[in-house]
Amino acid sequence: MLREARAFINDYYSENQLDGAYKRWQKIETEIENTGSYTHTFDELSYGAKLAWRNSNRCIGRLFWKTLKTIDARKVASVQEFEEALGHHLEVAETRTKIRSTISIFPPIASNGVAPFKIKNYTLLMYAGYSVGDQVLGDPKNVEFTQYCESLGWKGKGGNFDLLPVVYSVNDGPDQWYQIPAHLVSEVAISHPEFDWFGELGLRWYKLPVISFMSIRIGGIVYPAAPFNGWYMLDEISTRNFGDEHRYNTLPLIADYLELDRSSPFWKEKALTVLNEAVYYSFEAAQATMVDRHSAVDQFMKFMDQEEAAGREVTGDWTWLIPPHASSTTAIFHTEMKDELKFPNFV
């Protein structure tokens, strides 16, 4: 903790061109020696969250790391306050249809190792998956988690797009669940500008991708509940969530509507292009923030240039950064980088 705290404080004061780093470090060092930990100021917490985003190897949207809004939820102590804070995050992150990158940081792990709050969902908003014979209604990725939610007493409607509850624990106690009120969740119905039949598929997706199962580690302090969001890249919804065979697997149905010859080796690409068009068109029509793969890669390459100019080497997980569709047409496909973990970061 001493080592990470010293490195973080040095970076914080240096990058923000502030005076008083040594004096602040002396105070932190004394606090750690006396209590085994220390407390970040809000400005340190906020900047640490920004650095964690900047250091996130699997994120392609890091160009905007300086714009991250931090909600300080470290004083949240009760279940009611925690659940209200989750709803507050959704309200803050989506304002007048536009999405702002936001993180809510709850209390850190206690000196005895207990996590005051811990979220079990990989994202706050998730669609249920139900096993019905040899078929799945909803999202196949979430079948096991849906069954776990049901074991806790939650009951879904058995549809393709039932929003799951948030499962969380308090002080490492038994898991409990909370259903986020429907009026706080914005969803986009998917249609196509040319094909009227596309709306008959009944597809929809939520606007906010709030990653919630990861902890954030800043200067040696671990905050086990720190849900954060950016906005969707097109391929995340269209190519992966709707297109993957082990997810909603919509390509065969779209191919049938398009009357494609499925003996051709190109039918999936043709169906996928129409699917991408539909998702992008629908989010644009709903004025919901989204980025296409080419714009996202251009932004990431600009981020790399800015970091190089600042004397910092960009690390990244190439297998996560390349778009899953038409990846070789983007500059990042031909870019090499190290996949090394830097702190602050999400873990």
Can you describe this structure in just a few lines?
The chain is α+β, with helices and mostly antiparallel strands.
Textual characterization of the structure:
The protein has 347 residues and is an alpha+beta fold. It is built from ten helices and 18 strands. It has helices spanning 2-15, 21-35, 42-54, 79-93, 143-151, 234-242, 251-258, 267-285, 293-309, 318-321, and strands spanning 69-72, 94-95, 98-99, 102-105, 117-119, 129-132, 135-138, 166-170, 176-178, 187-189, 204-206, 210-211, 216-218, 221-223, 228-229, 232-233, 290-291, 345-346. Helix 1 (2-15) runs antiparallel to helix 2 (21-35) and helix 6 (234-242) crosses helix 8 (267-285). It is globular.
Keyphrases for this structure?
347 residues, alpha+beta, three-stranded antiparallel beta sheet, 10 helices, 18 strands
The major sheet is characterized as:
4 strands, mixed
Q: List SSEs in N-to-C order.
A: HHHEHEEEEEEHEEEEEEEEEHHHEHHE
The coarse silhouette is globular
Annotation field: number of helices: 10
Provide the structure class.
Answer: alpha+beta
Radius of gyration: 22 Å
